[in-house]
């Protein structure tokens, strides 16, 4: 009779309790560093934020008590990420269109999809090494060596797989009926793609691309020997061909300085970087959840 | 359906529209082959740049740990050993934590909202740039663990792994920061593959009287194993290539030591440290090291893809 009731002392029930608590502990250990990390960055970096931070150049490390601001690095990150997007988005979206719309699952498209996955797994520093060998050491870009342009190219290599993948997957989710309808009323293939399938996959592609850009903005390894670093304001278009600072490299350089003022600047830059990346992530997540609920097709 | 589509595509068209269509298709084709060109370009460029060092040191480069620009003697054993040790040990810590967290998220231990919040929190951790993690590791983690390392050395100093006096940055800290970086990868992939296991399997197991954890261990985990394994391999590839956080906290020393409490080196941190100022045959040797790193991560990645294809769920 008793066997119909839950018995606490049975070994299977004790074992279940044990493993359940173990997995709760795992989840706690996984999430604690994040809470600790984010609050610490927001607290430590947020307390360094001043208006001058956004307008001044950083002072060269030394005994100065005043470290200056991060204006050149902030602008540099924007420029380098823009260059990377200008290269990676057309190439990636175009490649994704080919994979999803034209290829028929043959050897070529399988090879490209495989290549996309492999490229996504290439360590980011290798992208920097590659651009160094190809562009920096050969001075192929009008004789300039380290430059913001080279840094943008290195970042575009990292963005490319993400953009292709999201385009490919976004387009594959578009129902075939839409294509039949468009082709059926006499539209050509490119009109169908540009006017029908791309617009209906726009949101999912845009979300993926924005997330890719956010990730690239925080990448440091490809920049440390392509764009290098600069302490000076970016004033004109010709600055693209010279060393260019970025928030990520500023954090790296100034974290390793023995001076407190520079360390504080690194924290401030981290605050700005993490805040913008996290808000982009959270925003696109909310957008994606919203799209899922109101899906029309 | 497929024939219908080709029928439409092959319909006769006239003049300019036909040409635009062809140009559009070929542009897309060229753009998609960029991926292959870049990938092959990376492999070829890194290989040819390392050729000088490769022909001079051969495979001896992999097993000697002399790195002396003055005498022009190069061997990357310390860095290769450091890369493998930090990535494997960090993975060893990450796997139980990550899979445990994934189980917590996919089972109904806690209210759904709460589990979803934890899930997206862990994923957000993946978005934090590694250079910021490195900064955090230098100023928060290192002081936090200092006393613990001294304790480790005092009580377990007889084990070679803990045999050196801890002084600031060391390999163990690099392993710990790697755990923080790998957790989101392993957790989110394990969660996805656990979610894909059909409900039928669970119901069948419960139906014949298996307890919850008996079901998890004997039915659900085995069914999700290929996905989890692929996630683990991806994380391994990431760990081997990870540069910034590791460079900032590992101490960057080429002196070989078995101890995790002494400063170490990984291939990527060696590249980050020396590439900017290197010249002559040092550059070539650095390219050789980069080539080794690339081969390591390529092998892991390709193996992961093969695994997914070979053992993907067939329900």
- Give the averaged pLDDT of chain B, no decimals: 87
Structural class of chain B: mainly alpha
Q: What fraction of residues of chain B sit in β-strands?
A: under 5%
Number of helices of chain A: 10
Helix content of chain B: over 70%
Largest interface: A-B, 96 and 94 residues
- Report the strand count of chain B: 2
Number of separate strands of chain A: 0
N-to-C terminal Cα separation of chain A, in Å?
A: 56 Å
Main beta sheet of chain B, described? Answer: 2 strands, antiparallel
Quaternary assembly: heterodimer
Poorly predicted parts of chain A? none
Keywords summarizing the entry:
heterodimer; A: mainly alpha; 10 helices; 68% helix; flat; B: 315 residues; mainly alpha; 1% strand
Secondary structure topology:
The complex is a heterodimer of chains A (297) and B (315).
Chain A: H1 11-46, H2 71-102, H3 107-121, H4 124-136, H5 148-172, H6 176-184, H7 189-200, H8 202-217, H9 247-255, H10 260-293
Helix pairs in contact in A: 1-10, 2-5, 2-8, 2-9, 3-5, 4-5, 5-8, 6-7, 8-10, 9-10
Chain B: H1 2-9, H2 15-49, H3 51-57, E1 67-68, E2 73-74, H4 77-106, H5 112-125, H6 130-156, H7 171-196, H8 199-207, H9 212-241, H10 244-249, H11 267-274, H12 281-311
Helix pairs in contact in B: 2-12, 3-12, 4-5, 4-7, 4-9, 4-11, 5-7, 7-9, 8-9, 9-12, 11-12
């Amino acid at each position: 009779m008793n066997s119909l009731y839950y018995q606490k002392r049975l070994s299977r029930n004790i074992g279940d309790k044990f493993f359940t608590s173990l997995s709760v502990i795992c989840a706690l250990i996984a999430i604690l560093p994040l809470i600790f990390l984010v609050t610490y960055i927001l607290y430590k970096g947020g307390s360094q934020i001043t208006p001058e931070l956004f307008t001044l150049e950083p002072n060269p490390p030394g005994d100065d008590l005043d470290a200056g601001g991060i204006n050149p690095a902030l602008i540099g990150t924007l420029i380098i990420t823009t260059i990377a997007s200008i290269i990676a988005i057309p190439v990636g979206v175009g490649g994704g269109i080919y994979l999803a719309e034209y290829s028929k699952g043959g050897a070529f498209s399988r090879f490209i999809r495989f290549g996309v996955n492999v490229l996504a797994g290439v360590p980011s520093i290798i992208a920097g090494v590659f651009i160094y060998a190809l562009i920096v050491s050969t001075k192929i870009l009008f004789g300039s060596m380290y430059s913001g342009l080279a840094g943008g190219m290195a970042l575009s290599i990292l963005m490319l797989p993400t953009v292709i993948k999201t385009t490919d997957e976004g387009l594959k989710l578009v129902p075939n009926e839409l294509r039949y309808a468009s082709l059926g009323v006499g539209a050509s293939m490119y009109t169908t793609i540009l006017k029908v399938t791309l617009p209906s996959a726009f949101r999912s592609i845009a979300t993926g691309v924005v997330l890719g850009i956010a990730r690239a903005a925080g990448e440091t390894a490809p920049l440390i020997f392509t764009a290098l670093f600069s302490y000076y304001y970016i004033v004109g278009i010709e600055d693209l061909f010279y060393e260019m600072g970025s928030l990520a490299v500023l954090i790296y350089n100034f974290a390793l300085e023995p001076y407190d003022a520079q360390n504080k600047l690194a924290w401030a830059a981290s605050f700005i970087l993490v805040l913008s990346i996290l808000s982009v992530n959270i925003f696109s997540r909310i957008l994606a959840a919203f799209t899922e609920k109101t899906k029309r097709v | 359906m497929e024939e219908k589509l080709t029928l439409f595509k092959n319909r006769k068209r006239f003049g300019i529209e036909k040409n635009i269509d062809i140009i559009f298709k070929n542009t897309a084709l060229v753009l998609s082959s960029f991926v292959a060109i870049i990938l092959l370009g990376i492999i070829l460029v890194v290989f040819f740049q390392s050729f000088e060092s490769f022909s001079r040191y051969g495979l001896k480069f992999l097993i000697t740990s002399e790195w002396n620009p003055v005498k022009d003697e190069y061997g990357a054993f310390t860095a290769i050993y450091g890369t493998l040790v930090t990535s494997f040990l960090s993975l060893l810590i990450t796997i139980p934590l990550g899979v445990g967290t994934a189980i917590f998220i996919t089972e109904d231990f806690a209210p759904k909202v709460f589990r979803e919040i934890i899930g997206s929190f862990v994923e957000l951790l993946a978005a934090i740039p590694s250079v910021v993690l490195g900064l955090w590791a230098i100023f928060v983690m290192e002081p936090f663990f200092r006393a613990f390392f001294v304790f480790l050395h005092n009580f377990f100093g007889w084990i070679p792994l803990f045999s050196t006096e801890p002084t600031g940055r060391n390999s163990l800290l690099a392993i710990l920061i790697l755990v923080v970086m790998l957790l989101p990868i392993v957790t989110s992939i394990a969660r996805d593959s656990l979610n894909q296991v059909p409900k039928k399997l669970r119901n069948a197991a419960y139906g014949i009287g298996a307890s919850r954890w008996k079901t998890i261990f004997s039915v659900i985990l085995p069914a999700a194993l290929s996905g989890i394994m692929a996630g683990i391999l991806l994380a391994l590839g990431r760990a081997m290539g990870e540069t910034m956080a590791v460079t900032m906290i590992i101490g960057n020393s080429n002196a070989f030591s078995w101890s995790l409490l002494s400063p170490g080196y990984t291939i990527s941190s060696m590249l980050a440290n020396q590439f900017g100022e290197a010249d002559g045959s040092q550059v070539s040797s650095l390219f050789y090291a980069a080539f080794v790193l690339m081969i390591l991560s390529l092998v892991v990645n390709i193996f992961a893809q093969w695994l997914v294809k070979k053992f993907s769920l067939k329900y």
